[in-house]
Amino acid sequence: MLERIFSRYPVDRTSLVMILQDVQTEFGYLPTDALKEVSARLQIPAAQVYSVATFYNVLSLVPRGRNLVRVCMGTACHVRQAPLILETVKRELDIEPGDTTVDGEFTFQSVGCVGACAIGPVVEVNDIHHGHMNVNKMKKLLDKLEQSAKDEGQS
Amino acid sequence: MIERIPTAKALVEIREKVSVTHPSMRKSVTVCGGTGCQAAGCKEVADKVREELKAQGLASEFKLVVTGCHGFCEQGPIVVVRPSNVFYPKVKIRNVKKIIERTVAAGEIIDELLYKEPVSGDRIAHEQDIPFYARQHRLVFAHNGYIDPTDITDYLSIGGYAAIEKALFKMKPDEIIEEVTRSGLRGRGGGGFLTGRKWRSCLDALGERKFVICNADEGDPGAFMDRSLLEGNPHAVIEGMLIGARAVGSKEGIVYVRHEYPLAVERLIDALDEARHAGLLGDDILGSDFSFDIRISRGGGAFVCGESTALMASLEGRSGEPRAKYVHTVEHGLFDFPTTLNNVETWANVPEIIENGADKFASVGTEQSKGTKIFSLVGKINNTGLVEVPMGISVRDIVYEIGGGIPKGKKFKAVQTGGPSGGCIPQSMLDLQVDFQKLTEVGSMMGSGGMIVMDEDTCMVDVARYFIHFLKEESCGKCVPCREGLKTALDTLDRITQGKGEMKDIEILEELGEWMSTSSLCALGGSAANPVLSTILHFRDEYEAHIVERRCPGGICVELITYSIDPELCDGCHACVKVCPKDVIAGDKKQTHTIDTTGCIKCGACLSACTRDAISRK
């Protein structure tokens, strides 16, 4: 099932991290079967594939929510009150960074730095940057996402 | 795309043909497409510019150029009309029509849309007259504002790929290295090692294969210059790598770039394709005997992979764990072959050195640090963005002349440089000349060039705790001093910031720092204590206030502060009342409000809602 991904790279261990990234993009996480297939195809022991899969931040062994909320905790964002924004997301979604809400709607992460320091504090929602955030803007953004999730559920 | 360029002569001919009009002099409307401007909505602005140019019949005369980052991210979306360089910041879609009608078509300047200098309040019309730009010395970043990063002809028209042509046909590998060594270029990624010396060792090393790597795993929180270079001028990096490969005798290049930088990856892929198509990568480049190609590897989001040996481990399909440094990567690097690894900004400096000579490059800067450095000037500063300055400029000039000082008239407290491996420069050292030596002397370092400005509302103990927390998360866990040292340091700092610290904790932190710096395996652990040691050195009083008085002078540490409303400033607008999630703010409309601190969870909602700065944390 991963042929399309394998075809993009030389099939050897140098491609492991990128292949896993693409598997993650395809499925939203790294399913066990996919890891086994990667291991067999690249001829890397499954234990080593697992070691790599759990080492890198962008890779996840559990399914992610439909919305990915990433709060940047870079230094520039930190001094501009990013911790208050992180707390707000924690409180509103009632989960810890790294977790996914029970309804599978949101995955919440704190990230080292997204490299958009000049417009900090930054929150990245589904790969779109939101700059100059504050506590109230964050709440509104989450409300909007929750609302559109509800609307979709109804339609 | 341009067709394969078979010889050096053909390259010269193409360049002559495309450089009739220098991109800075052509009739164009440039819209900054950097990440900051994208978040501010530049894509829509660019679409509107395209639409209006067409509607007003100007599309054939004026080219729309979506460029890389201009650096002045605070002011995005930025539109500059060229060649007059009339600069419009924070452009709204509704104003685009007016700009095209009046400035582009009629050459007028629209006063009310111009940049307003925050101190004097003067309107400034031209990009080059804005203090933020006027005081910079742009070498690497010079072309970012007007070339189209997706078009190789733009790069050719500014003299692009002339340096590799010179390196291939007029210089021997030895001479290239000699030139780079004489220029005094030092690694811009953190270590500051002499680039020429690194190349020499790699040239001398024996190996069937040799690798040239560009480290674009820009992980230092607070730094984004590498991202902007890759997004805005990818061919400069490619050309630098070509020259390096020629010098050390490599055929294989790799760019290891952060997965979190999708635009940089996209621009790089396109640029590599274009260069390959033009025969500037591949076999027998420009008809010479030199063959070289570059592939991209996307990083997995681990800070430690910015360390060269961890990066190579990652490229080999393993976890990014560093190894001991006594085995040099220039001799035994990727797959045990000799490897030259430099950072993005270092590579981007190389074409300039080869084309215009080491002497010209070395004429800028200080005795031990030559050339310019790009800093990301961020945090509590008016003009945030990327600034390229000559080495040796004072911190004061960067913060006040270029950066425009601290917002809201707050007091300057410190500048943090060098990322998590660096330290803080306090007010008393504002006149420090910024170069590799001077920064190290005061307990900080150059690092990759993050410069985070902190004002009086910043807690320096919290800053130290922040970095240690970051490093604890990012430590690969291979060696004990780093893994356990960071954990203990974080526990200690947690206690202090929670008001549970003791005076002996300061000594523990100092001792721990000493121990980690002498016994860790790689630079991550070796320099991890710097943020703690430097804040203890310069802001010991803040540590003592937390420990002795159970007070946070910066008003940050949640356990030690309470929120209150200044009755003098509060106008009873009710904004805070509406947003308080715990309903603990009382007061009728137009009456002074008060906070019941017993139920307050210190979430900061009132703080960001208040328009009169009436809420304080002490």
Short description:
Chain A has 155 residues and is an alpha+beta fold. Chain A has helices at residues 3-6, 16-27, 32-42, 46-55, 75-79, 82-93, 135-154; strands at residues 67-72, 106-111, 123-125, 128-130. Chain A has a 4-stranded mixed β-sheet with strand order 2-1-3-4, covered by helices on one side.
Describe this structure in words.
The complex is a heterodimer of chains A (155) and B (618). With 155 residues, chain A is of the alpha+beta class. Chain A folds into 2 domains: 53 residues; 88 residues, Glutaredoxin. Chain A is built from 7 helices and 4 strands, in the order ααααβααβββα. Chain A has a 4-stranded mixed β-sheet, with helices on one face. In chain A, a hairpin with a 2-residue loop joins β3 and β4. In chain A, α3 crosses α4 and α6 runs parallel beside α7. Chain A is globular and about 50 Å long. Chain B is an alpha/beta fold and 618 residues long. Chain B has 5 domains: 127 residues, Glutaredoxin (3-Layer(aba) Sandwich), CATH 3.40.30; 203 residues, Rossmann fold, CATH 3.40.50.11540; 84 residues, Ubiquitin-like (UB roll) (Roll), CATH 3.10.20; 89 residues, de novo design (two linked rop proteins) (Up-down Bundle), CATH 1.20.1440; 56 residues, Alpha-Beta Plaits. Chain B has 24 helices and 19 strands. In chain B, strands 12-11-15-13-14 form a 5-stranded mixed β-sheet, sandwiched between helices. Chain B has a 4-stranded mixed β-sheet with strand order 2-1-3-4, with helices on one face. In chain B, α12 links the parallel β8 and β9. Chain B is globular, with a radius of gyration of 26 Å. The N and C termini of chain B lie far apart (60 Å). The model of chain B has no long low-confidence stretch (mean pLDDT 95). Chains A and B meet through α2, α4, α5, α6 and β4 of A and α2, β11, β15, α18 and α24 of B.
